[in-house]
Write a structure and sequence with these properties.
This protein is of the alpha/beta class. The protein contains 25 helices and 38 strands. The strands form 5 sheets. Strands 15, 16, 17, 18, 19, 20, 21, 30, 33, 34, 35, 36, 37 and 38 form a 14-stranded mixed sheet that branches. Helix 12 links the parallel strand 18 and strand 19. Helix 3 packs parallel to helix 6. It starts with 7 loop residues before the first helix and ends with a strand.
Length: 819
């Protein structure tokens, strides 16, 4: 949401566009790239980007919702169909977006910090914001918006009310940084950790360093550590330079680090021949390094060392993720309280609007830090309207003054304590509640009161990773091929409506469940996508019809039973899906049963075949490729015979996750994506492009020091002949951690180190050997993630990842997060 207005003619000149202007007096303040996420549509400029989906296809939706300014690259686009809209025709819409942001950047002369590196960019940016905010009005990248698209969107937020900008830049290959450098044009450059992250896009670490340093070509001040540039052979950028180090000589040389109780660290350093010290509330190596970068930056900006010390001691953790949790009284809680500005609020409200499981949406919002203008709260009012918020609860004296601006039910409280005191009298019931508060308001206390008490073992579901995997498979299917997402078995253990909402938002075409009650749950949660029921029971046909579900029909018995129900209900046409057996021999019409089915289909008018499908037996395994080809051939033959009888189009689908990866000729009109959504595809065994979606976490209940010769657990099977240290953790076979994982077969992560189980797995807990690890009671323990993978556990159990995921008990709470 940008304050500075632009007129269509000015936009046309900046973009060097062929303009078709119907309203030369319209005002442009906001940039949009997604028709599902519309903010301030009346004053918005929509860029029709070409990617996995063509943005031109979504112009009608954006126009319907009020957008009247569009940047397009398709010269054949029917602009005349949108009579009062302005169009700007360019060669490339992403390049045009970057050009516009670059022009906007040069309207301002205040300092701009540019941050890049492999790790730590977002943390350093947020910590600099925390410690510089007392005297600076700062505009910064929203969350980790640091890409070719994210950087221009962030830079567009620069306004005349700001006096400092902080932007991060991330790249994945050679040639990307030059664009970002021209957009950000930093005056101060900060290089963070140069680890191995994202190394795959470069031939060498030297190539990666050279590319990243392009961001700093024009900076007045460059802040860096020599250790990351030891191999660099060129001239370092920056008219002025400030260095930091943990060993060699530097402007800021940290020579001693002490661990203090309560996870604090005390750092000692030499600076201008003086000894300085700071206290920071972290003791892990990454946080210490990031804090040192902030320390060096403030010294380079000539801040008083005492002021720096005071502010670094108060650094707060940066929680860069939005979490979706189960709440009290059948509510869903979206907790996004780590920071608050207008941009992050818009993102959180988009996520709130995406939730369909409850009929009501509530926003609990604090004062916006550093801005109590009416203009700011006018923008918030517009956001609340655009995002369909039903109720607003304000916390803070500033926002409370503008209660009459907001177009919904409003309750106001002076501070968090007053809201908490009144929580028993506020009716929260069957609604989705977004908590969005500045850190000083302590909204975590509200979250604890509104969130259901959780079992300390939790399954975390990374919605970004799931979205990434979905988009990966979309790139593998043809532009006209539809996608059915399999969400049976509680979405492979990952959830129900939480996953369905994301899939519907990302415009999959179909959902599939195993049983009718799973489909009913999705319908009750607001899912409107067509849903196929894969194992319909005759007793559930009434329920299927009542909730507009679509049954899989796999035999004449099931078909006749369903027809009987349709006749009783007087339904003249109902959608079904026909399952063919091409070799799985589980469910479906065999080849020798097809004639009877064809006769029935030729005569019956009560059903409408939406799809015909089958299931590949071994699509992931090259050993069985000959059989897979025979399945594809048989399916093609049988579905063609059905087509001749029906004489109307229907969808055909055969490929599962591995089928999408390995068998492009088996895509037909639709594919079915299941376990691949969750980052597991047996066809992608090496250098998989998929991301891990689920992490199972527990915690240490107790630590014991065991004498030599003592045994651990039932039947005395855990042996410690030399003694050692064990930790009892809060997960057992009732949670879905298999009993076979005991006695060292299972492995877990404690403080980043892999440790074995010891003794038998109990019902509600188990023991692990943590000898030599400085762990504490209450520490997190990782059962599986992207280090100890679900596939590893499946191999240990001689089973498949499906079983591991679907075995996780429902008493293990699911937490969904979006970064």
């Amino acid at each position: 949401m940008n304050h500075l207005p632009y007129k269509p003619k000015e936009i046309s000149l900046i973009l060097n566009a062929q303009a078709f202007i119907k309203d030369e007096y319209s005002t442009i303040r906001t940039l949009l790239t997604d028709s599902r996420k519309l903010n301030d549509p009346l004053n918005a400029l929509f860029f029709a980007l070409k990617g996995r989906r063509n943005g031109h296809d979504f112009i009608p939706d954006a126009y319907k919702n009020g957008v009247r300014n569009f940047v397009i690259s398709n010269s054949d686009f029917p602009a005349n169909n949108f009579p009062d809209a302005n169009f700007f025709l360019v060669k490339d819409t992403l390049s045009a977006l970057q050009v516009l942001a670059k022009a906007h950047r040069f309207k301002f002369e205040y300092p701009v910090m540019g941050i890049t590196g492999s790790n730590g960019k977002t943390i350093v940016k947020e910590w600099l914001y925390q410690i510089l905010a007392p005297e600076k009005n700062i505009v910064r990248s929203t969350k980790s918006f640091n890409s070719q698209l994210g950087v221009p969107i962030s830079v567009w937020e620069m306004g005349s009310e700001n006096d400092l900008a902080i932007f991060e830049a991330g790249i994945s290959k050679v040639g990307e940084m030059q664009n970002l450098a021209e957009i950000i044009h930093p005056t101060i450059g900060i290089l963070t950790n140069m680890g191995e992250a994202h190394y795959s896009g470069f031939e060498s670490i030297d190539q990666k360093i050279n590319e990243k340093l392009k961001l700093f070509d024009s900076v007045d001040l460059f802040i860096y550590s020599h250790k990351y540039l030891s191999t660099f052979k060129g001239i370092l950028p920056g008219k002025n330079k400030f260095t930091w180090s943990f060993s060699e000589s530097a402007d800021l040389q940290v020579f001693k680090i002490e661990s203090i109780e309560n996870n604090f660290s005390r750092l000692y350093a030499k600076y201008l021949n003086k000894i300085l010290e700071i206290l920071i509330p972290f003791n892990d190596q990454a946080s210490i390094e990031n804090a040192v970068i902030c320390w060096a930056t403030m010294l380079a900006l000539n801040y008083d060392p005492e002021i720096i010390s005071q502010r670094l001691e108060k650094l707060s953790p940066v929680g860069m993720r939005l979490e979706l949790k189960n709440g009290i009284n059948n509510c869903s809680i979206i907790d996004d309280s780590y920071s608050l500005d207008i941009s992050s609020l818009a993102i959180a409200l988009d996520f709130l609007k995406q939730q369909n499981q409850h009929p009501r949406r509530t926003l609990i919002l604090s004062d916006i830090p550093g801005d109590d203008s009416k203009l700011m709260y006018d923008k918030i009012s517009n956001l609340i309207t655009d995002k369909s918020v039903d109720r607003l609860i304000t916390v803070g004296e500033k926002i409370g003054k503008y209660a009459l601006l907001f177009p919904c039910e409003v309750q106001s409280f002076k501070n968090t304590a007053e809201l908490i005191e009144n929580l028993p009298f506020i009716k929260f019931q069957n609604e989705t509640i977004l908590l969005k508060g500045a850190r000083t308001f302590g909204f975590e206390n509200i979250s604890r009161l509104l969130t259901q008490k959780v079992h300390e073992t939790v399954l975390e579901i990374n919605l970004n990773a799931l979205e990434h995997n979905l988009n990966y498979y979309k790139t593998k299917i043809g532009s006209g091929t539809k996608l059915m997402a399999i969400v049976k078995a509680f979405s492979y253990g990952s959830g129900s409506f939480e996953i369905a909402n994301l899939l519907e938002f990302n415009q999959v075409d179909y959902l599939a469940v195993a049983y009718a009650d799973e489909g009913v749950a999705l319908r009750k949660a607001g899912t409107t996508l067509p849903i196929m029921v894969m194992s319909p029971d005759s007793m559930a046909f009434d329920t299927i019809i009542e909730h507009e579900l679509e049954p899989e029909i796999y035999s004449m018995r099931v078909l006749n039973d369903f027809i009987d129900v349709l006749k009783i209900k007087g339904i003249s046409s109902y959608p079904i899906h026909i399952k063919l057996d091409t070799g799985m021999h589980r469910l479906g019409f065999m080849e020798n049963e097809l004639d009877e089915l064809l006769l029935f289909l030729n005569d019956s008018k009560l059903i409408h075949v939406k799809s015909v499908f089958s299931h590949l037996v071994a699509s992931e395994n090259p050993e069985h490729d000959l059989f897979t080809r025979s399945q594809i051939s048989l399916f093609t033959n049988l579905s063609n015979q059905i087509s001749k009888v029906l004489k109307y189009p229907f969808l055909r689908h055969l490929a599962n996750s591995s089928g999408i990866s390995r068998w492009p000729d088996a895509q037909f009109e639709m594919v079915r994506l299941g376990i691949g959504l969750y980052g597991i595809d047996s066809a992608l065994t090496k250098n998989s492009p998929l991301q891990t979606v689920t992490s199972l976490k527990t915690s240490i209940s107790q630590i014991k020091h065991i004498p030599a010769g003592d045994t651990i657990g039932y039947s005395r099977e855990g042996k410690m002949p030399n003694g050692g240290t064990i930790a009892t953790v809060k997960i057992g076979y009732a949670d879905g951690y298999n009993r076979k994982m005991g006695n060292g077969r299972g492995k877990m992560l404690v403080r980043g180190q892999i440790v074995p189980t010891i003794g038998k797995i109990c019902m509600d807990m188990c023991m692990i050997d943590i000898t030599g690890i400085e762990a504490e009671e209450g520490d997190d323990v990782i059962v599986f993630n992207d280090v100890i993978r679900v596939e590893d556990i499946a191999n240990q159990l001689d089973t498949i990842p499906y079983e591991v995921l679907t075995s996780i008990s429902q008493r293990v709470k699911r937490i969904y997060y979006y970064e």
